[in-house]
Structures are given as structure tokens and as C-alpha cells.
Amino acid sequence: MEDSNGAEIKAPPPVHRRPPRPRGGGFTPEGFVAALRRRLSSGAAVAARASFAADSGDESGPPEPSSSHRRRDSSGDTSSTGGPGDFTAFSFRAAAPVHRKAKESPLSSDAIFKQSHAGLFNLCIVVLVAVNGRLIIENLMKYGLLIRAGFWFNSTSLRDWPLLMCCLSLPAFPLGAFSVEQLAFRNVITDAVATCLHIILTTAEIVYPVLVILMCDSAVVSGFLLMFIACIVWLKLVSFAHTNHDIRQLTISGKKVDNAPSTADMDNLQAPTLGSLIYFMMAPTLCYQPSYPRTENVRKGWLIRQIILHLIFTGIQGFIIEQYINPIVVNSQHPLKGGLLNAVETVLRLSLPNVYLWLCMFYCFFHLWLNILAEILRFGDREFYKDWWNAKTIDEYWRKWNMPVHKWIVRHIYFPCMRSGISKEVAVFVSFFVSAVLHELVVAVPCRILKFWAFLGIMLQIPLITLTSCLKSKFRDTMAGNMIFWFFFCIYGQPMCVLLYYHDVMNRIGKTE
């Protein structure tokens, strides 16, 4: 449209008027229903219903309005209703249904695992911090600061010099094993003679520190460290002898195998060298092979940070032992001689600092220390542990907790037993038996007592494996096995072993005095 001057005149926006209501008897239900349907089909009404569904927590509410409705609403077309914020829409009326479908409560058995529990997890952290903060304050008020400057080293530590000399002389046994292998690969001695010499060397390597500890009046911690190192060297010697014996069978004797080894496997079928032995004895692994995957360089900054963290967590372990565990243990009674309630109370009181100590030990040794060694030696395979904290069975825990020992047992005990025709159950029993003997040596020899507490603790894992495996097969998605693992290892098992060994050691010292 143009005016007299030729200028274009914009048409006024159309005025939308509500249609007149029928008068008197002109009202029909069919007309009301049709108008109501047109009103509910508008984009603004759909948006209003979606907003109402969100406010009322109804996740099954209507979808968002279509793009055409959104464009019409954004252009200012509010002919149907007063806009998305128009609370006169039907979705906001009392006649609109609130309960649209059958739904479970969030904590019901059918819906609990479909919900996010991040808020409850945060609550547990807050409660844990508050409870432990109170325990720290209570401990400081009751005992004061108990950590001593001479906790790790003092004047009485000088009497343990024979144990230090014993530890420094242990490398003679790997050199002896290397000499035996050199003679065997050159056909100077037979495989049978080499096997007998390795048995003598490995037996002498484990008996030698035992005799030194029993003959010297050394501290329990010093004896524990020596036996721990001696057991590591023994495991490495067994792997070195067993692996080279198998290499000789495959290369010299020409023994056939079911599947042909790959090119990378063939590169490892070599005679040992002095360099490969030295690297193996220092590397964070218990399984020997002539070559290992290596990293390109050493990350010096990362290595320094790990060393600092290792020192910090080592100090935290000493603080937990001196400030929390020692006062509880010293003021306790023998768990098998006192009352039942007293024993349960002591075990529960000791369980919390024991869990903290155990977790710090795991992080300090398996993560920090082994990664420090791997970084210095550029050792590539750093899978020292897996997610054992999520284990649903005791068997799964033992397969994930200590990967170097697990790989050693599978390679040198379990698989050889299976190849010999032994059943799986017997192979598992033999594996746990060897582990139980080593645990008993590491603990019993420094304490100078033979009570078989550590041995029984490991062997009792076998019925627990059966129990947790049955629970997992019966209740597929349950975490009952995980809770049993945490209870027996952290709440009951380890605190009970600490109390038993402490009071047995104190009784032995009291009798000698």
C-alpha cells in the first residue's frame, strides 16, 4: 500500500481477538473440546507443559516444542496463549494430570543403581573428614605428640650391622646362578646338574639371612627388611633359573611347542649376559627375560616429584605407627586370652589406623617406589597393580593387588602345575601354599616366633575364594564379595594379625628377661 506521495505504508499488525463466547443455550461441549485441543496443540502450551514437568520432577513430560513453534514464539506470535510464561495454560491448571506413569522410588531395589550417588559420596567424605578430625584431636589431647626423632635410626640401630653386611653380600648368589647358566649353555654341565646347583643356591640364599637374624639380637624392623629383600632375591633367582632352563629346552634341545613363538618372542630366547642379569636384579619385576620394553628417556622433573612424595608418605606411615597404632597395641590384651567384647573393641579400634597405614604402604611402595625404579632404569611395563579395590571376589583381588608376584606365581608355579597334568584346584592350593610360606618367613623370622599366623591367614583365603565366587555367581551384580574382602582384610584380618604377633613377641621377650 502507498500513500499519495508514493511512500510505502506498513500495515498495522493484526489484532487477534478472542472469539465471542456463545450466549445462553448456544454452548456446546463439542465446541469446547475442539477449542481445548487447539490450545493444547500450540507451541506455547507444549513449552508450558515441559516447564511444568521439569518443575514437578516428571522426566516423562512432553518434549520441547518443535522448531516451527519456537520460530513462531520468537517472532512474537502469541495468538494462542499469552506466551511460554503464560500460567493460564492447561498444564498449570488443577485439571492437568500430575501422575503420568508408574515410577520407582530412587532408593528402591529396581532403581537404586540407575541413580547418581555423587551427593551421598560427598557426604561420606565430609563425615569421614569430620570423624577422623575428631579422632586426631582426641589422640593429641590424650597422648600428645609421640613421634620421636630416632624412630627410623638411633644408637641401638648400630647393633644391626650384621644384617646390613648380610644384605650387602646377597648379590653373590645371583653371580653364582649366572656362572651355572654359563656352564649349562656351553654344555659343560648337564641340565640335571644345573638344576641341582640352582636348588642349592636358592636354598642357601634364603637360609643365610634366617641364620643371621636368629644369631643376632636385632630389631624386628631390621629383620623384616632383610627377610623382605632376601625373599625378593629368592624369587628372582627361581625365575632366572627356570626361564633359562626353558630357553635351553627350546633352543638347544629343540623341544616342540603347540604355537610358534613370534619374532619378539624369538628375540628373548637368548643366553643370559651379565648385563641382562644385573638389569633384572635391579628392575621392578620378578620375572626374568633377556630384554624388556624400555622408555626413551628419564623424566627428571617427574622423578624428583615422585621421590618427594615417597619421602612424605614414608613419614606419614611412621606418624601413623607411632601416634595411633603403638598406643592401641601397647594398651591392649592378647585377643585370644581376654574377653570377647574387649577383643572385638580393640580390633575395631585398631582397624581404622591400620587401613590408613595399609593404603599409604600400597601407594608408597607399589606406585611411588616401583615407578621410581622403573623411571631410573627406563623400565617400560609399569602395570604393578590393577583396580584391586573394585574386586568382587578374593580371587580377583589376588590377581590385581600385586602384579609382580601374581605374574611370577602364574608363570613359575601355576602354569607348570597345569602342564604337568595337575588339576586347577591343586595348582591353586600349591600357589597359595608357596605364598603362605614366604609370608610366614618374612614375619615369623624377625619376630623369632613360629605361630603360623601369617601362614594360616594366607591359606584361609582359599575358602574365602570359594565363598565370594559363589556369591558372585548367585548375585551377578552384587558387591557382597567386595565388602567381604574389605572386612576380612582391613577390619578383621590385619588388625588381628598385628595384635597376635605383638603379644607373642612381648611374651617371648618377657620370658627371656
Can you characterise this structure?
The N and C termini lie far apart (120 Å). The model is unreliable at 59-84 (pLDDT under 50). The radius of gyration is 37 Å and the shape is globular. Helices cover 63% and strands 0% of the residues. The chain contains 18 helices and no strands. InterPro entries: Diacylglycerol_acylTrfase1, MBOAT_fam, Oat_ACAT_DAG_ARE. One of its GO terms (molecular function) is diacylglycerol O-acyltransferase activity. Residues 1-30, 51-86 are annotated as: Disordered.
What is the element layout, followed by pairings?
Layout: H1 29-40, H2 43-56, H3 67-74, H4 118-143, H5 161-169, H6 172-185, H7 191-215, H8 220-251, H9 263-267, H10 274-282, H11 300-330, H12 340-377, H13 394-400, H14 403-419, H15 424-447, H16 453-459, H17 461-474, H18 480-512
Helix pairs in contact: 5-7, 5-8, 6-7, 6-8, 7-8, 8-15, 11-12, 12-18, 14-15, 15-16, 17-18
Terminal-residue CA separation: 120 Å
Radius of gyration: 37 Å
Q: What is the element string, with H for helices and E for strands?
A: HHHHHHHHHHHHHHHHHH
The best one-word shape is globular
Report low-confidence residues grouped into runs of 5 or more.
59-84
Strand content: under 5%
Number of strands: 0
Helix content bin: 55-70%
**Average residue-wise pLDDT:** 78
Helices, by number, come to: 18
Profile the largest sheet.
none
Broad structural category: mainly alpha
Keywords: Acyltransferase, Endoplasmic reticulum, Membrane, Transferase, Transmembrane, Transmembrane helix
InterPro entries: Diacylglycerol_acylTrfase1, MBOAT_fam, Oat_ACAT_DAG_ARE
GO biological process, one term: triglyceride biosynthetic process
GO molecular function: diacylglycerol O-acyltransferase activity
